[in-house]
Design goal:
The complex is a heterotetramer, with two copies of chain A (about 325 residues) and two copies of chain B (about 325 residues).
Chain A (H helix, E strand, L loop, with lengths): L14 H26 L14 H8 L7 E3 L5 H6 L4 H8 L34 H14 L5 E6 L6 H12 L4 E7 L2 E2 L2 E2 L10 H5 L3 E6 L3 H16 L5 E6 L19 H10 L2 H12 L4 H24 L15
Parallel strand pairs in A: 1-2, 2-3, 3-7, 6-7
Antiparallel strand pairs in A: 4-5
Helix pairs in contact in A: 1-2, 1-10, 1-11, 2-8, 4-11, 5-6
Chain B lengths: L8 E5 H15 L3 E5 L15 H5 L4 E3 L4 H13 L3 E5 L10 H14 L9 E6 L14 H5 L5 E3 L4 H13 L4 E6 L6 E5 L12 E4 L4 E5 L2 H15 L4 E5 L2 E3 L3 H11 L2 E8 L4 H12 L9 E5 L8 H7 L3 H12 L2
Parallel strand pairs in B: 2-3, 2-4, 4-5, 5-7, 6-7, 10-11, 10-13, 13-14
Antiparallel strand pairs in B: 1-8, 6-12, 9-11
Bound molecules: thiamine diphosphate (TPP) (2 copies) and magnesium ion (2 copies).
One thiamine diphosphate (TPP) sits at the interface of chains D and C.
Chain lengths: ~325, ~325, ~325, ~325
């Protein structure tokens, strides 16, 4: 579980890019605060899985991507969605099942997709998007357009045979796919070590795939490592597997409150207080650029006001018309 | 009327009935074990298995990796070699992942071996929508496995049936798949306390007697049918509610008998309508009761759409008591 | 009568018709490609794809590892991002391995995304028994996928239909699964040479007109029905043979119309009887033609047993022309 | 593809055991000569896949097993079946679909099983028996009886995700399962290197599983290596993966005659003339024991006469009664 020590170059980004990365991480954090509130106040149907704590992974990687590059996401997908460029109003509307949502309210949190920004969708089947991401890489290669495809998944997806099948093909055919394993250490309510034999990186390495292991709480490290792997893939040098150690702050889903039987409060506290990706980046930003806590606070304030407006918008947006129920079954 | 002469009963939830059945069988037979994702300490996300690991330990209540095909396969192999595994598939939607192990392996091994090998495997999983869980966590896919010879398929609709069918499944020498309606876990009912309360697989249960129209309903739809029957009764229409309890084997005779008696029949099932369980039942009744029917057999089933997330849309996809009432009234007074 | 006004035709085998359809579409549209096990140099074990790799190369006719779920998933992702993949699943029995990618992914993505994402994917696979291939290589599992909204399912029964439906599948913006009967590959027929001979999906075809009894037959069973019709004709019974051509969408209207006309209907399908495609069709006709039927709708289907290896047993499992004749005669002279 | 050099101890078996191993290999070879003839003379329904050339693998391993140990087999299953102790008459009868067959004629070549000798069955789904073998290992462990389970599969099965799923569990739970990969270099009509990225042994090693790589044509090497792995498994030390380089002499199935487009005659000749497992063992036997070519010839003659009788028996045995068609669907 200890990632190899890496030396992060002093300035992996320009000032503007760094601020944007900060903004994107904060955007995820704030989105989920509101989503959580909506759930707790019984305004959101169903349940949802919070990405909070893992922001550096999605943002560190997606900041390298254009709208033509694709990603696939998971049941824990808000972070990937925001990081890939989605807008608040359509996202909140989707979580609330409103017609104004990205999927006209038909997908919800577990299926949110944003085609225009290249997000091929969250997926409620663990590992279920591994084929889709690989196929998107196949398309990119077939058309030689230099696009890449990023497959985000939790370490629990290592249990799914599908992932092994497609990694073999990606490597055989040198497809531009980055497999990003977000190891937040829990498959629902079970520690991953209880259900994962051997070494995670041994799996992609068996196929001869390039791998990297990073501290997923350090966006600089994520970003720098991702750059190399993505560049390689764009050049046709094949896929890569990136293992990111990270942590989810909330329960497995919003309803998973009493969870000490599988995870201690101390462990949670430790991650939050010493390895928070936003705090770590804040410290780095303020010491490496002429950026003050105030600058960051005003970014945050702006985001919070956008969020409130978007929540308002979404709460007042209509549900899809009943007649929509049998639309979009077929194209 | 479902469980005559079964001795003392106790009021308990559907979830508790499942839990009790499993606990009793684990106690009775050392070859029984449970495996699945988060079945042990977590007792499954629905908490249906809570406490079992405390009594039986992690060697018999086993948390697995997220490898549905893999651990179902392990269950098949264990079943072939003297164990009686209960494999837990968290959502019925994940049947998609285990079809090869279930259909090409478990279902066929007894036959392909000329009757020599046995697969006494139980798979418990779920069905049912309206939990706002969207398209990949809301399906009712029992028609698929009911289509496959060699498998038995049970759909308990009450706590008592949940206990009796689970025990039957575990004691049966064939692979049996049990679908539990996620929304019924908190429903309460009288459950026989006997440790040998085992329901026969393949015997339908008349949940309510009536003379005017037969409502054949499965799983989640039994309560819908019973509610509809209540409303109909206040209009003077006496509906008979028949619960097949197992779609395979299907108790054709009881279904046909009821339809012959009433001359009218509606089949209500939460799977999709097209090629769903409702089609088989409707075909069986249409044929078997042909000369007695006063109206076509009608089907109410989940709409042929992926289950949408938006609550208003989702609620449209599943038959309601009002749908049943209006269909029944139309059949009787066309 | 199946293909009026289609211009010139050529006699060719079913296999050649499939091959031609694929070649034409590969030529027409650079986003079309084929992937599967041994599809390239070997041209599949049935040699149906022979020669395609020579013209289109290994970048467009792609041999895969034995990873059905994996390469179907790759097909889904490629389809979502601008390609039109044709995924080759060597035997229909291996659908068991790809159900998640087909059912939870391909079928639902368009709907779940509110109509934004598309999955123009074609899956070609097989059905049918009596090749002595035993239980895991002889199934006809089209009922499963026909049950799932978002999928289309085609079952060509003639070389012409094989061409027209394959082209329709590739050009369709939805996932379409085509089942080819393994025993029909060498059957010959007239096939339109037009490169735009595309059959509509969802339109049944009356393969033979008649007034006395309707035989609704799918895929391999169409020839069985036509043979039976010939025998019946010599007894003065004129059977109408209706081929739905697609089980999803199902052309209810044409099936019901025919049954109304004849008053008698037999459904013949090579899937297992229980919960099979024959159940849906029988239910649709029983309901839609209720007031016109002079006899119950009957079903002839594969027996509800795993397909046995022993030739004498295997031959018992599948409906024959004689079975159809005897059922028709019973219906007409009970 | 070059296995690591191993030093085979001079005498891995007693004289009697060695003769038995020879006999078992010859039994497979002769069985298949007759099966092939039956097919070519149109007396056998369906088609079948020949094991000839791979005999040292099945025999080298199964000679360590008792009838309580289990194996699972593949579409290419005659060798495993014979090696696990099956008798000719019931085997031929099964291939011909007769009631006297092991499966009453209901299984055929692709599903032949022999429960009494612990053969849980051939399987016509590539990789399809990996779960069964692992489950059998689970049973053995649960009952603590020291039995092992051997899963035979071709290298093509490495494409199936299932195998990865169950190897993970076998290693996690230290199940007594030996995964035997018979690399005969072809997945049907495709060379394995075209569809297999990276290293085969990297796959089980990813799970921390013990591995071995042997020359599958040398029964001494197979037998010696298998002993260690099986002993370990019996003692509760966990599963192992054994990679055996080997070769099938015939086509993929009996009907695969014109096959130069994927495999050269030269290659075939080379394996047959220089690496035949029976020839290699014959040379070793005659130089290490007081065993003459004549001794071996008389063993072979005995087997041939048994085979002829068994074929006669099978050809004259009745098909199952028609009423059997719907028997054994349910127990
Ligand atoms: C195929 C499948 N099996 C089981 C589940 C239920 N489930 C949802 S999330 C989850 C745990 C996933 O763990 P991981 O992949 O580590 O992702 P994380 O939740 O930690 O982000 C499980 C078992 C599912 N959705 N899909
Ligand atoms: C799941 C599955 N996919 C495809 C096939 C068709 N098929 C039968 S054997 C075979 C090749 C198997 O190769 P390998 O595993 O190396 O075994 P070998 O034939 O070489 O012994 C294929 C693709 C099958 N039977 N099962
Ligand atoms: Mg996790
Ligand atoms: Mg091979």
């Amino acid at each position: 579980m200890t990632p190899p020590k890496t030396t992060t170059p002093k300035k992996p980004w320009t000032r503007a890019a760094a601020l944007r990365a900060y903004e994107q991480m904060m955007r995820i954090r704030v989105f989920e605060e509101h989503a959580n509130d909506l759930y707790l106040s019984a305004k959101m149907p169903g349940l949802t899985h919070m990405y909070t704590g893992q922001e550096a992974v999605a943002v560190g990687i997606c900041e390298h991507l254009t709208a033509d590059d694709t990603i696939t996401s998971t049941h824990r997908g808000h972070g990937h969605c925001v990081a890939k460029g989605a807008a608040y109003p359509e996202m909140f509307a989707e979580l609330l099942g409103r017609e104004a949502g990205y999927c006209r309210g038909k997908g919800g949190s577990m299926h949110i997709a944003d085609q225009e920004n290249g997000n091929l969708g969250a997926n409620a089947i663990v590992g279920g998007s591994a084929g889709i991401a690989t196929g998107s890489g196949f398309s990119a290669k077939a058309r030689g357009n230099g696009d890449v495809s990023v497959c985000f998944f939790g370490e629990g997806a290592l249990g799914q045979g599908l992932l092994f099948e497609v990694m073999n093909m990606a490597q055989l055919w040198k497809l531009p796919v980055i497999y990003v394993c977000e190891n937040n250490m829990y498959n629902e309510y079970t520690h991953y070590s209880e259900v994962t034999a051997g070494e995670i990186l041994g799996r992609p390495q068996a196929f001869g795939m390039r791998t990297a292991h990073v501290n997923g709480q350090d966006i600089n490290e994520v970003h720098t490592t991702a750059k190399d792997l993505i560049d390689r893939a764009r050049k046709g040098e094949g896929p890569a597997f990136m293992l990111c150690d990270t942590y989810r702050y909330h329960g497995h889903h919003v309803g998973d409150i009493a969870r000490d039987y599988y995870r201690s409060k101390d462990e949670e506290e430790e991650w939050k207080s010493t390895r928070d990706p936003i705090n770590l980046f804040t410290a780095w930003l303020t010491s490496n650029f002429k950026i003050t806590e105030d600058d960051l606070a005003s970014i945050e304030a702006q985001i919070r006001s956008e969020a409130e407006q978007a929540v308002d918008f979404a709460l007042n947006a209509p549900y899809p018309d009943d007649s929509e129920v049998d639309q979009h079954v077929y194209a | 009327m479902s469980t005559p002469n079964v001795g003392t009963t106790e009021t308990m939830t559907f979830a508790k009935a499942v839990n009790t059945a499993l606990a009793e069988e684990l106690r009775r037979d050392p070859t029984v074990f449970i495996m699945g994702e988060d079945v042990a300490e977590a007792g499954t996300p629905f908490k249906v298995l809570s406490g079992l690991v405390d009594e039986f330990g992690t060697e018999r209540v086993i948390d697995t990796p997220i490898s549905e095909a893999g651990f179902t396969g392990v269950g098949v192999g264990a079943a072939m070699t003297g164990m009686r595994p209960v494999v837990d598939i968290m959502f019925g939607d994940f049947l998609t992942l285990i079809m090869d192990q279930v259909v090409n392996q478990a279902a066929k091994i007894h036959y392909m071996s000329g009757g020599k090998l046995h697969v006494p495997l139980t798979i418990r999983t779920t069905l049912g929508a309206t939990r706002r869980s969207a398209a990949q966590h809301s399906q009712s896919l029992h028609a698929w496995v009911s289509h496959i010879p060699g498998l038995k398929v049970a759909l308990p609709s009450t706590p008592a049936d949940a206990k009796g069918l689970m025990k039957a499944a575990i004691r049966d020498d064939n692979p049996v798949i049990i679908f539990e309606d996620k929304l019924s876990f908190q429903e309460k009912g009288e459950v026989p306390t006997s440790e040998d309360f085992v329901l026969p697989l393949g015997v339908a249960d008349i949940k309510r007697e009536g003379r005017d129209v037969t409502l054949i309903a499965t799983s989640s739809m039994v309560q819908v049918a019973l509610e509809a029957a209540k409303t109909l009764a206040s209009d003077g229409i006496e509906a008979e509610v028949v619960d097949p309890r197992t779609t395979s084997p299907l108790d054709d005779a009881t279904l046909i008998e009821s339809a012959k008696k009433t001359g009218r029949c509606i089949v209500i099932d939460e799977g999709h309508r097209r090629y769903g369980a409702s089609a088989e039942i409707a075909a069986v009744v249409s044929d078997g009761a042909f000369w007695w029917l006063d109206a076509p057999v009608r089907r109410l089933a989940a709409m042929d759409v992926p289950i949408p997330f938006a609550p208003n849309l989702e609620d449209l996809t599943v038959p309601t008591p009002a749908d049943v009432v209006s269909e029944a009234v139309t059949l009787i007074n066309p």
